[in-house]
Structures are given as structure tokens and as C-alpha cells.
């Protein structure tokens, strides 16, 4: 599983990356979490940041609470 956190590097983007990495660890799934700051790359997916892209599909826009991030990744890992 490849997880991209899209955003300019703001505190909310960093928090989403942190929560996604925590969820990956808690779920014990094989995944790589990377932050994408390039505006052109972000625009390929969305104009709303932060956003989470899993395997090239936008699954979340805007910073959500940890349980929502955990649930989204759990559903995609099943």
C-alpha cells in the first residue's frame, strides 16, 4: 500500500502524515507513507489539502480525527 499525504507542509499536513503513520503501525499493514509538497503533483489529485491518497486514489480531504484515518486505512487494507 502506498500512502501519499498531499499538502504544502503546513502543521495540518504534518499532523495527517503523523496520524497516517501511526495508523499503519497500529494496523500492522505494509505501507509507505510519504509527504508530497509539490503543487503540480498535488493538483493532479485535488485542490483541498491536506489530503490522503492511497494507491493513487484520494480517500480523504481535510484533516480528520485519528479514528477516521484509522478506519479508512483499515477498510482499504481488508
In short:
The protein has 78 residues and is α+β, with helices and mostly antiparallel strands.
Plain-language structure description:
- It is a single chain.
- Helices cover 44% and strands 24% of the residues.
- It contains 3 helices and 4 strands, in the order E-H-E-H-E-E-H.
- The chain has helices at 11-27, 39-43, 66-77; strands at 2-6, 32-36, 51-54, 57-61.
- The chain has a 4-stranded mixed beta sheet.
- It is globular.
- The N and C termini lie close together (11 Å).
- The model has no long low-confidence stretch (mean pLDDT 96).
Features:
78 residues; single chain; alpha+beta
**Mean pLDDT value:** 96
The low-confidence parts are none
Percent range for helical residues?
40-55%
Shape: globular
Q: Bin the strand percentage.
A: 15-25%
Report the strand count: 4
- Report, as a whole number of angstroms, the end-to-end distance: 11 Å
Q: Can you lay out the helices and strands and say which pair or pack?
A:
Layout: E1 2-6, H1 11-27, E2 32-36, H2 39-43, E3 51-54, E4 57-61, H3 66-77
